[in-house]
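cron nightly-structures :: item 1 of 1
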Amino acid sequence: MNRMRDLISVAVAGLFARKMRTALLLLGPVIGVAAIVAAVGLTDSAKGDLKRKVDELGTNLIEASAASSFGGEDAKLPKDAAERALTVTTAESVSSVLEMQNIIVSPYEEATKNFETVPVPVLAADTALPNVLEVDMIAGRWLNEFDEGARSRSAVIGIGLAREFNVLPGEIRSLLLNGLEYSVVGIMDNVELEPGFDTAVFVSYAAASDDFLDDAAIEDDVVLPNKLYVRSVEGREDDTAEALKVAINLGGPDEVQTELKSEALELAAQSDRQLQLIVVSMGLLAIIVGGIGIANVMSISVIQRSGEIGIRRALGHTRSTIAGQFILEAIAVGFLGGLLGVAVGVAAIGVGVWFAGWVFTLQPMLVPLGVLLAMVISVVAGLYPAARAARLEPLETLRLG
């Protein structure tokens, strides 16, 4: 017991007697463990935030769009597509939109040239869209029956476009669509499942028919949509998506494409997982390189401390005692480096979560695993220097020293 206590005290004294060398030894474990902990923690935090969003938004929003067979490049759905979609028993609510092309959106006349090359989505939409998307208005209102019946030039904009155009909530503002003045009656909040809507402009079908559409987009005075958004019964999303294809085209040759909007978030989670693997691999590489550095620095230390080793051998210390001292130093370096690496990694997670607005998530096992990994790498790296120190004979140390 006394021998082990003495050995530990000698090893600790050896580390703190050469602070700069010890700091260099710690760099590898610290950087490697910090990278691994931060990568796993940030990815888990992102996944937790993603899961929260999916729970809030639901996984049952389906987008149905017209394939090229419905009309070539600018394909449209039938005029009664929304009514056909509602015949699907698992479809709870439906909204239709028409994405329009080549409409220049500008906050005022003088800025029109600046925005000619900036594509801002403009969509004709029905009155049900916010309810189907389950998104709130942060100011004003959505398009209503009056806007449709009176054919008024009213518009709703996404929150991103409101920020770009400096539209304040409650402010009476207008914008220009191909030079025509439209009153902004509302600002829609973020649409997580359809991010493009955040910078979009929405107008009524009647206004779109009067101002922007040609005869190809209108049938019997009814505007033809090119997309439907459908909320299905929870757990029946796949069945609903398949049934919509048949219901909308009535079994004909025209194709309807369907997409579960939550799948985009799931793909984002997969890409986060791939990024996690890349960063973890980089962390492992860093800690391995750090291990090589530990081996190099400790090997040099053996030469620098040859006098000390010779004196201790002359006083009767065995080879195993000398080797044990260097192994204990390596263990101490791994332990301290692992603890510091975990601390730096947790701090990085905290900073990333604070900036991104995620929920802090850290797997408890990461802390002991990070420390253990650093210790294992350090011990493996310290084996050769320890063996080299143990082989030194007292007379040989005079030559080295």
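cron nightly-structures :: done
The longest strand covers residues 91-100.
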